[in-house]
Structure formats: structure tokens, C-alpha cells
Amino acid sequence: MSKRSIDREESEQDRIVSARTTEGSGPNQFTDDVDMADDQFSGDEDSDEEIIELDDEEDIELDGDEDKLTEMSLEKAENIMKKDEETSGKPGQELYLPHMSRPLGPDEVLEADPTVYDMLHNVNMPWPCLTLDIIPDNLGSERRNYPQSLLMTTATQASRKKENELMVLSLAQLNKTLVKDNDDDDEEDEDNEDNDSDPIIENENIPLRDTTNRLKVSPFANTNQEVLAATMSENGEVYIYDLAPQSKAFSTPGYQIPKAAKKPIHTIKNHGNVEGYAVDWSPLVKSGSLLTGDCSGLIYHTQRHTSKWVTDKTPFSVGNNKSIEDIQWSTTENTVFATAGCDGFVRIWDTRSKKHQPALSVKASNTDVNVISWSSKLGYLLASGDDNGSWGVWDLRQFSPDNINNVQPVAQYDFHKGAITSISFNPLDESIIAVASEDNTVTLWDLSVEADDEEIKQQAAETKELEQIPPQLLFVHWQKDVKDVKWHKQIPGCLVSTGTDGLNVWKTISV
Predict the structure, then answer these.
(1) pLDDT tens across 318-360, in order?
(2) Bridge pairing between strands 148-156 and 129-135
(3) Rounded distance, CA 81 to CA 85, Å?
(4) Would the pTM of this model clear 0.85, i.e. be above it?
(5) Which residue from 104, 108, 113, 118 is spatially nearest to 27, judged by alpha carbons?
(6) φ and ψ at residue 127, rounded to 5 degrees
């Protein structure tokens, strides 16, 4: 759909896959560099130093009276500083939120503050990518030491359909963001030299015939066995790939990927030529259970029986011809799933329903509900984000036939100024949520923060701009036209996001 696509003419880049380690500044691929401090942005206005000089018309007789000259110079300097303060609102740094503050001037940029990132890398892509997912690896869980490595997959939105690709990426030597002070000892600089190597990026590509709207990797993916990935294409077809050969090629020198591995192991054609954005693998059915929803409101269920994939011919539908924007399987019940749609409803379904109708429907928004996320830690929490930039969290224990018209989200925020394009619970922390928006930001939120905390009240009183910021907001990450964001389950706090400036791999000091 148009709200999810990226303007190709504005976003075409050099067709090179590359990365750069952040050292003392943000990635050089940023159109605007972000300068962030904890849960907010701070921007420095770059301006040339004003030269203070005396008017030539004034004849000043020094006669050894240098104090008079100094006094006049200081007075003029104070007047200039006073004018600067009046135009900027206050002296020094100003709190800058990209989607709320004044637009940047022609000579102003945002720079990433390396002190608020544990890790920040940018990967240039040959074309913009609307979607991505993380591939589980065999390097272990709870990985906190640097350098880091990860496997992931994404798919392109090329200017020509035949140039699209499904890309499997191996990112290694992802070093910690280095913050150097001028007062550092030489010994410390020498110690950091070993950690200052460039990232290593390898890629294996699979040719596609069209743009991929949404991509999901099976939660049971294993690089030693099978890596199932499903892609929803603009042409209406859903492709299921096994990316295990591509993943194996990164760790096995000399390994040749079979030609058959570059073709889908199964194609779902039940959607006809109707494209879609909703796809999800069941986290409870290991053999493979896939749901796909399209723009005409039809949802198909595909399962694997032995080695054969079978799609139920009867779709799930409410019959309103409204697009299904997102699908999420329940994390606790293997027959239950939720959908978000352009009709503004969040619906709960059961695959055992003979009528293929929803069990419960809740009006979640007056506009399109674009994305949802089911908590893997607390199975009764479901987050949703809509086209107005509003997002909230629902307690599914309140969903009942008797109460269905009175259900309200347990938390709701209107902070973003653009449509919500991605939302995701942190798989390792039930209270942390990542939210991506068309206002060019990814925000991190901590729902465990209490609004009446005395420290928060004091900070808001001291800084006027903080009055507009919910206390639950942890961090704001800037990325142009960000479309998707995913947590890495094996690297605590690590996220990967995609936008027109490529892929961002980042970890903040806040999570």
C-alpha cells in the first residue's frame, strides 16, 4: 500500500553494501546526524564565530588606555550573545525532537551522540528495504561482549521489479561505539586499537520478481537444520524459502550453495493477485504453521504435513473487504491469533472456528491499525499502532463478549507525529517496547516507569520541553523513513531497523 512504500527516486543510493563503525560521530550515511542524550535529542546549532571588531569610523585615542578598549569590546560581545540567546530561546544547547521541534536550518545538522549508544552501525543497501528479520544463530544467548555478530535477512524495493532480491546478511566485527576524550592516556588508546577494526559484511542474494512487502523468519529457524522464511510480495504471492544453505555459506569456507536453494520450497497463490502485508509464523507449532492476510481482508492458513505444505481453501474473513495490515500468533495458545486492519479493529481469531469468523473484535482506532505485537513474556498483552501515530497496549484479559464495547487500552501514547510502521515488544523484557514511525524516529519505551516519580517531576519542572515527553519514553533514534524494527533475541538490547538510509544496527545505553 502507498503508505508503506518508499519514494524510489528520492531514496536510490550507490549500489554498494558497506558499513562504517561509529567513532566519535554518527554514521556518515545519515542525511541528518542525531545528537541524543538518554531519552531525548539535543541539537547544537552550528554557526560561525562572530568576529568582534571596532568600527573604523570611531577614532579611539588609546593613549595607553587599553582598559577602555577592553571594556568596549566586552560590551559589544555581550550584546551579540544577548541577541543569540533571544533568537534561540535560551543559551547553550536546546532540547531537539526531530518531529516536534522547529525544522533544521540550511546549515544545521543532527549528529549522533556516541555517548548514548553502546553500538551504532549503518549498512548501505543497493535499494531501500521495507522489511527485515533476524535469523537465530548458534553463537549463544545473552551475548554482551564485543565485537558482536549477527545473521539477518531483508528484501529490496528496487526501481525495476526484476532487480529485486532477497538478501541474507552476515554482519561480523560489530564493535562497541568508541568514545574518546582528549585527556585519554596513550595506553588506553593503544588498548582500543584492537577494537577499531572495520565490520565484516557478507551477503548471499536470491533473485525476486517483485517487491517484498513483509518478511518473517520462523522462530524455530536453526542454521544447522532449517531456516524457514516467508515473504509477501506485491504480486500477491507468498514464497516460503529455506535459507539454511545461505546461512551455512558464511561459516563454511568453500561451501557451494545449491541452485535449488535459490528457489522457494513452496509458493502460496491463494491470494490471487492481491498483495498483502500480514504474515506470521506460529511460535508454538514447530512443523510450520503460517498465516497470511491481504488487502482484500482474506486470511489464509498454511501448514506443513510431513513434507507437504497445505493451505486451507476457506479463508478467515469478516467480509468487509478491508485490508488486513498485520497478523500475530498468540504466544501461549497454538490455535489463537490476532489481526489489525484498515477498519480500525483488532480482532481475536481461533483456527478451530468452522465459520472462519473472529471470536472477538475491539475498535482500537478511528483510522487504520497498521501493526500489532503480542508479548512473548506476558501472553495477555498486545500492542497496536495506528495511522495517526498513536499506539497502545491492550490487556486481553479484558476482552470478553460482555465487555467488548467498553475495552480501553491499559496504556496509550500520542507522542509520534506520523503513522506507526512497526511495533515490537522486547523479547527479553516484558516492559520495553520499540515503536517505529513515519516521523523518522524509532522510540523505546519502558511501561514500568511510574508517572508520579518525584525525580521525573523535578526534571520536567527544570526543563520546559520535558513537559511534552511522557516519562515512559526511554530513547529516540533518528532514521529517515524507517519502516521496520526488530529486537535481536540473543543480543540483549540490540535492534536492527530499516529505512531509506539503509540498515541501522544499534544498542543504546538505556536498554
Answers:
(1) 999 999 999 999 999 999 999 999 999 999 999 999 999 999 9
(2) antiparallel
(3) 6
(4) no
(5) 113
(6) -145, 165
How many Å apart are CA 33 and CA 503, to the nearest integer? Answer: 15
> How far apart, in whole angstroms, are the C-alpha atoms of residue 161 and residue 138?
34
List Cα–Cα distances, 387 to 33, 325, 333, 434, 436, in angstroms.
26, 11, 29, 16, 12
Question: Do the beta carbons of residue 478 and residue 32 sit within 8 Å?
Answer: yes
Question: Buried (b) or exposed (e) across 83-111, using 16+ Cβ within 10 A?
Answer: eeeeeeeeeeebbbbbbbeeeeeeeebbb
- How far, in Å, CA of 381 to CA of 448, rounded? 14
Contact 291, 300 (CB under 8 A): yes
DSSP-H helix ranges across 432-489: 454-462
Distances (CA, A) of 390 to 380, 385, 409: 20, 6, 11
Cβ-based neighbour number of residue 288 at 10 Å: 19
366-388: per-residue pLDDT in tens? 999 999 999 999 999 999 999 99
**Most distant pair of Cα atoms in the chain: their distance:** 103
